């Protein structure tokens, strides 16, 4: 497989001189299977950059997997030009909304309502299919096998595992390291910790041994205490998770919108030395818009 | 034609009757209160839920239902928080709190659906009116709860006179006879009277006692802006239910003091409220989980 980062920013797009090197678009990953299958993970504003590259290969068949439907992960969707062109096919997959009781089509169709967007969903010319996924439901997209697990975020968020010809990768979507809501010593701490350990293990088992892990790394350990419960992880927690899951390489993404390129590189280097990555691995990288890596 | 025996209750007889009533569902109330606070510690929410076996059971039923699509069976609230996240659990708890508050029942009797719908509608409108009047979110939630509970007396009578009270409700609706008239004639007690007694017995805040006991008393309600919201919301909910017929329904205009407080008459208020059917349906959805964990296929206006 080949992975190209089309958007690596978290929360909101931040174009400008301070984000030129790593990019200002929000989450979108383009993955190509060995037969050229097009798998897209999330539809942040980076999706538009991807759309512009697709005109040379019409008609397009795209498999779009949404980790969750917070704005920064769907904002590019109405501007995914292949959806407007007859002959193209877009398969959209995502989780059910258990609170408002909506399937993925109902959730997304709101984006195309009159007050938000000039074109109605029904008027999209491409063939669009919607699949509301259950946890661990397996989807075959050409030669690429895609499966999912619920991560930890303020809304149901799927982490996706992709496999193709013996190679594999995992994308967390938005994910906060699990934590105990009870202080140590309190009566309920131990029981809660059991579940935390169980969930952690199910996540690391699920991504175990992947060749490449892309992880939501919004925060530094200094940021984290003020941002606890907001649904995003730290460099340090992701390095720990990658080691526990014995992944072969780790890419940090969902960069904080306030982080300039220089700041990002600095906090990245600090984390690497604090966690002794050079010594204990795994190889770690910053995701950068436009960067293509072989999986 | 068999004539119903008119019963007149002594205070003692009434309290004896109410022994059969459930205790006040504090957890539903607490959930609505604490979810209002964005900084509410997760463990507080977990505690409130865990203390109430009915809420716990409903939440577990919900997260394990087919629609949720979880790969793993969830057996405790703490586990659900770890596996689904605190925010999802918080929103689910918020969704089922109204039913808990209104019925306290282990399973929801289908015949109560129309009372539930009317109560939710009143609650949602009362909250909206309070917000429009510029009250804080906490005060708006108080109005929501007051609206939700205003007809609790009906739920009580429903339980005290199974079958019979349902027939009264139908008769009132079909023949257009005021419910309180029928209540006095047939069972010698009104839903507001028993609502007030319950509210006092549970030592609820005054707003709730007045709402349960005095929501048809325009003089009483005119004394508090929050009661005005409940009184008005109740009228609007009634009109919405009657739908096309509402133009003909007379005698439901607002007293001058309320008009002054709200700054609009009933028609203007209805117009400003806009479409809330979606919001009500959504609220009802979570309250209609069947025993087997599935959901009602569709919610009908009973
Ligand atoms: Zn995000
Ligand atoms: Zn998010």
Would you write up a description of this structure?
The complex is a heterodimer of chains A (295) and B (302). Chain A has a single domain, classed as Ribonuclease Z/Hydroxyacylglutathione hydrolase-like (Metallo-beta-lactamase, Chain A). A 7-stranded mixed β-sheet of chain A has the order 6-5-4-3-2-1-14. A 7-stranded mixed β-sheet of chain A has the order 7-8-9-10-11-12-13, covered by helices on one side. The relative contact order of chain A is 0.16. Chain A has 295 residues and is of the alpha/beta class. Chain B folds into 2 domains: 102 residues, Hypothetical protein af1432, CATH 1.10.3210; 176 residues, Hypothetical protein af1432. The chains are: A alpha/beta (295), B mainly alpha (302). Chains A and B meet through helix 3 of A and helix 3, helix 5, helix 6 and helix 18 of B. The complex binds zinc ion (ZN) (2 copies).
What are the main properties of this structure?
heterodimer; A: 295 residues; alpha/beta; Metallo-beta-lactamase, Chain A; 7-stranded mixed β-sheet; 7 helices; 14 strands; B: 302 residues; mainly alpha; Hypothetical protein af1432; 18 helices; globular; disordered N terminus; binds zinc ion
| Radius of gyration of chain B using CA atoms only | 20 Å
Roughly what is the average pLDDT of chain A, rounded to an integer?
Answer: 96
Hetero groups in this structure are:
zinc ion
Strand content of chain B: under 5%
Roughly what is the average pLDDT of chain B, rounded to an integer? 79
Global shape of chain B: globular
Major sheet attributes of chain B = none
Beta-strand level of the residues of chain A, as a percent range? 15-25%
CATH superfamily of the largest domain in chain B: Hypothetical protein af1432
Structural class by SSE content of chain A: alpha/beta
**Looking at the structure, what is the overall shape of chain A?**
globular
Instruction: Note the quaternary state here.
Output: heterodimer
What's the domain count of chain B?
2
Q: What's the CATH H-level superfamily name of chain A?
A: Ribonuclease Z/Hydroxyacylglutathione hydrolase-like
Can you tell me the residue ranges of chain A where pLDDT is under 50 for at least 5 consecutive residues? none
Task: Give the beta-strand count of chain B.
Answer: 0
């Amino acid at each position: 497989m080949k992975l190209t980062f089309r958007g690596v920013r978290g929360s909101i797009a931040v174009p400008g001189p301070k984000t030129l090197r790593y990019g200002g678009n929000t989450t979108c990953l383009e993955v190509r299977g060995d037969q050229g299958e097009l798998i897209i993970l999330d539809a942040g504003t980076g999706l538009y950059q991807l759309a512009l590259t697709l005109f040379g290969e019409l008609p397009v068949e795209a498999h779009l997997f949404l980790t969750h439907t917070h704005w920064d992960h769907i904002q590019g969707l109405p501007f995914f030009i292949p959806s407007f062109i007859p002959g193209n096919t877009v398969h959209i997959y995502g989780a059910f909304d258990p609170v408002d009781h909506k399937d993925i089509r109902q959730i997304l169709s709101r984006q195309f309502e009159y007050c938000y967007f000039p074109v109605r969903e029904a008027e999209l010319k491409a063939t669009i299919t919607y699949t509301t996924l259950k946890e661990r439901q397996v989807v075959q997209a050409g030669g690429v096998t895609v499966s999912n697990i619920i991560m930890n975020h303020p809304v149901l968020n799927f982490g996706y595992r992709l496999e193709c010809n013996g190679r594999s990768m995992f994308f967390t979507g938005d994910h906060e390291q699990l934590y105990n809501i009870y202080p140590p010593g309190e009566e309920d701490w131990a029981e809660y910790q059991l579940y935390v350990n169980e969930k952690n293990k199910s996540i690391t088992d699920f991504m175990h041994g992947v060749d490449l892990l892309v992880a939501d790394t919004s925060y530094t350990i200094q940021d984290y205490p003020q941002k606890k419960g907001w649904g995003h992880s730290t460099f340090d927690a992701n390095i720990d998770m990658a080691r526990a899951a014995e992944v072969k390489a780790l890419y940090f993404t969902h960069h904080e919108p306030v982080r300039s390129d220089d700041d990002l590189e600095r906090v990245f280097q600090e984390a690497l030395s604090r966690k002794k990555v050079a010594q204990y691995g795994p190889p770690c990288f910053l995701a950068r818009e436009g960067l293509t890596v072989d999986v | 034609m068999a004539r119903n025996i008119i019963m007149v209750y002594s205070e003692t007889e009434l309290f004896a009757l109410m022994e059969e009533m459930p205790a006040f569902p504090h957890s539903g109330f607490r959930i609505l209160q604490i979810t209002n606070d964005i900084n509410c510690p997760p463990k507080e929410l977990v505690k409130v839920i865990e203390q109430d076996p009915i809420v716990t059971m409903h939440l577990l039923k919900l997260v394990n239902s087919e629609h949720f699509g979880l790969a793993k069976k969830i057996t405790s609230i703490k586990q659900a928080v770890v596996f689904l996240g605190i925010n999802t659990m918080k929103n689910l708890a918020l969704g089922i709190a109204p039913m808990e508050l209104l019925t306290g029942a282990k399973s929801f009797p289908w015949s109560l659906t129309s009372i539930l719908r009317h109560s939710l509608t009143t609650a949602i409108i009362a909250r909206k009116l309070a917000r429009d009047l510029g009250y804080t979110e906490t005060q708006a939630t108080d109005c929501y709860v007051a609206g939700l509970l205003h007809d609790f007396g009906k739920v009580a009578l429903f339980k005290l006179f199974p079958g019979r009270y349902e027939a009264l409700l139908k008769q009132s609706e079909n023949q257009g006879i005021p419910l309180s008239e029928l209540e006095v004639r047939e069972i010698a007690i009104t839903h507001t009277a028993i609502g007030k007694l319950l509210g006092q017995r549970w030592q609820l805040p005054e707003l709730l006692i007045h709402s349960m006991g005095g929501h048809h008393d325009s003089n009483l309600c005119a004394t508090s802006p929050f009661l005005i919201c409940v009184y008005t919301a109740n009228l609007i909910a009634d009109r919405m239910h009657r739908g096309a017929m509402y133009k003909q329904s007379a005698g439901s205009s607002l007293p001058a003091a309320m008009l002054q407080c709200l700054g609009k008459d009933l028609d203007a208020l209805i117009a400003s409220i806009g479409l809330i059917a979606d919001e009500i349906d959504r609220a009802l959805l979570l309250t209609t989980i069947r025993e087997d964990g599935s959901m009602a296929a569709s919610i009908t206006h009973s």
